[in-house]
Design brief:
Blueprint lengths: L1 E7 L2 E11 L6 E10 L6 E5 L2 E4 L1 H8 L6 H8 L6 H8 L14 H10 L2 H12 L23 H12 L7 H8 L20 H16 L2 H4 L10 H11 L8 H12 L14 H8 L3 H6 L2 H15 L7 H20 L2
Helix pairs in contact: 7-10, 12-15, 14-15
Amino acid sequence: MYLATLTRGQTKHYEIRRSLAGKDHRYLDYKMVFDLGDDPCRYIEHLTDDICYFSEELVERLQLETSADVSLTLEDLLWDFLPAEEQARLGIFRHRGRARVTALSEEERQTIEKDIHLFDRRRLYYLRYGAVDQSRIFRLNPKLYRPLLNKCRDEREFYLMDLEKALQHNELKTYVFAIFDLQRYFNEGFSATMPEALDQIDIADYFIEEICSLNNDKSFWRKGDGGASLHDHLTRYVIMFFDHGYGRRSLFDDFVREFMGRNRAFSWPDKKPEVSTGQAEKVFQMKWQKLQKMNRRELTRLYRERAKELHPDSGGNHEEFVELNGAYASLLARKKSHK
């Protein structure tokens, strides 16, 4: 079971939910177990200043849903609403006797490989390592995915939302830049470390494309599309992106930004990736002669079309997508050198 926190206008609403098999048993859905309203504290009754218990109505309802100790379950779910004195008393014993982290079973590994979406992997990768560059994402210890197993999309989102509370306000926009892997759209060598130095209008355009694509990704939601409007679980990323700026950097970084503003022709030296004509024709599905004649805008348009087809989030192949990025970067570098 998990606590769902819903924002309704200026107030918050709380529900206890649990994951369960959907109607056709092909995916997990959720069930609302108990509606706590806008104040869960009303279901916490005080015996003394440092001893409290949960209302009989709440306990009896949860007993119908689980064979586990309901008091311990409610302590975990409603911990933030317990009085400070009660937290101090229970905190001594809270983690005692809990199971140690064991090695993943082969079944768990197979489920992780098949069931954990790339967007979930990206978020956990950043939350664990704070890395904007997502190129090493598949080196993440698979044990970190275990809390997502056997959970519906709704429960996974509230789990990740809870982890995201640790983020500072000045890193929220960078977090969104990282988890939607927006750096892959840019050829600049500093794109993975200095997103604030990139074209912000382009970043916003790519972000909107990515979040709309995720909103309609059936493999992510597991039951139909996200709908005509943006799903509630994605709106927080729109707020993170558009309502926050990049965090303050070092004095050297401030100097670099000022220098780039004064010298618009300045650009960081890019790597010069190489790709054969055969590879370029293969990934772009176009003859080399036509690729050579394309200007930067036409090539970028073609790249975006192919990227949507090959992107792993859209059911594409990861290796082919990496090969496409390399070919695109190589062609751009060649066009720059021939100016």
